[in-house]
Amino acid sequence: MSEVLEARELSRVYDADEPEQAVRALDGVSFTVERDEFVVVVGPSGCGKSTLLRLFAGLIEPTSGAAIANGEPVTGPDPDRAMVFQEFNLFPWRTTRGNVAFGLEMRGVPEAERNRIAGEYIELVGLDGFAGRYPDELSGGMRQRVGLARALAVDPSVLLMDEPFGAVDARTRETLQRELLRIRERDRKTILFVTHDIDEALVLADRVLVMGADPNRIAATIDVPFDRPRYGRGLETTAEFTALERRVRSVLRDEGPDDETTDEQETTGDREATNEHDGADVESSGDPDAVTTVSENS
Amino acid sequence: MSRVTRSGTDSEARNTESEPRNASANRERSRTATRTRERRRNRLLGGLLIVGLWEFVGRLSATGLGIAPPSSILVATVDLYASGAIYGPLVETVVRLLIGYALAVAVAVPVGAVMGVSGTLDELLGTYVTIMFVTSVASLLPFLIIVVGTGLGFYVAVVFLFCVFHMILTVRAGTANVGPGLVEAARTFGATNWRRYRYVLLPAALPFAIAALRIGFNRAVKGVVVAELWIYAGFGSLLHSYQRYAQADYVFAVVVHVMVIAVLGVRVLRWLEERYAGWEGGTS
After folding, report:
1. Which residue of A has its CA nearest to B198?
2. Domain residues for B51?
3. How many A-B residue pairs are in contact by the CB < 8 A criterion?
4. Does a structural domain hold residue B282?
5. Does ipTM come in above 0.95?
6. CB-based contact A183 B4, cutoff 8 Å
7. Less crowded by CB within 10 Å, the N or C end of chain A?
8. pLDDT by residue (tens digit) across B158-204?
């Protein structure tokens, strides 16, 4: 069996004082992730994609259904599923080295050994020479490199990434995406990655799960057929890429709130409007055959 | 482990990200160093100016206003030691101060820390700590004399009450502000309950705890002086007796001792802060 992660009718409700105000953050989500597969969940804010990740991390418990990792239901955090956070969540009192070594320290790895391992991962993420710096002294992009190294250092089989590049500028984001793919070529990991950025999803993923809001469930599963390695060859400008992008966008549009005919979802309204225009430009060059939609379970 | 070769564009991108930062950081450092020197010089200059002016006015009014010039305070200080008058009160005052302060720290740090973490304890105590925080502790002195008399317990109680509420609230703020994200990050790496305290809450709250100790020490010094003035003991008895004979120079000489104690205490705590919580904001 090569399924590493499985969501089985996974639901999560956040209780409120008034029963009718309770939030269905996740409403019966099912999917599987194969070993070494890179799956990206894309969806608008509030669609429950972060909740999904936190369930697999074991930080919260499902209201019903199960998050299953390596055949066992997740009951709590496990370093075998390491998480990378959008807000980095680095320990400000620890240096780069101390942060990267944290998971090893929790495991009781002796200091010399964990410093050696931390050093390797610091080098892997390109932070040689910054091992002794505190997070305050690093740029946003560098901090997330530390966050990535910290997660990799415990050699987990699964990486859970919660909008990891959402808090850095666009240029740095691209660099970090490339770095992530490069590192993944070396250290094969099963990755479940959450983002609201469609381009990011398509550049990174083997498979994209498109989540809709209200109900918060998976609206479509889209295979991304591009060869790897993907960076450095202008993939984003190809007709296949833009066609896939349009496909994801149209699923998201159909999956908006029920009364979306007049106004788009507040959060994505502006983006949708500008992209509509882009889409029209690309229309003529797009090749519909390049789109491979595997399943649509809505 | 073999190092993965990176493409040229990759390391270029990284360099543009890191090198200018390095250079600007160095510039920044040397700028702050110059700035620190300037600040020190100005502070010294200000002190000299005040002392000079004071000396001048003091000498002019030597007979009338009773503003003792610094030179006469220096003479009085030397005399306090020569005559031995300072030793007894100094020891008494410092002992009372330290006992009351130590007790307050022993109570405030755990209580404040738990209040910051546990909503229940915060609800139980929060309001009352805040009420005591805004109450003038000095107004409680007559009450305290009725309850504990005028022995050592009185001074200890006053010092304790003067500083404990400030410290509780500061420590509480410290632990309450530890980002939930940090605790979550620790949990994902398998940090169990007590390790969350040891590896996350404790280091995160440490700067606040030390700040609390510093604020608390200042308040404790005020407390011991107020208590002693009220009872005519320790420094209080000295101050009262010199005041009775209008010996302003001796009164000031005692006040200088109070200042030195307060500054020394804060210095020690600041040193501790830089030693153990230097990561918090740039150390200066």
Report:
1. A106
2. 9-67
3. 96
4. no
5. no
6. yes
7. N
8. 999 999 998 988 888 888 877 788 988 999 998 887 888 888 888 88
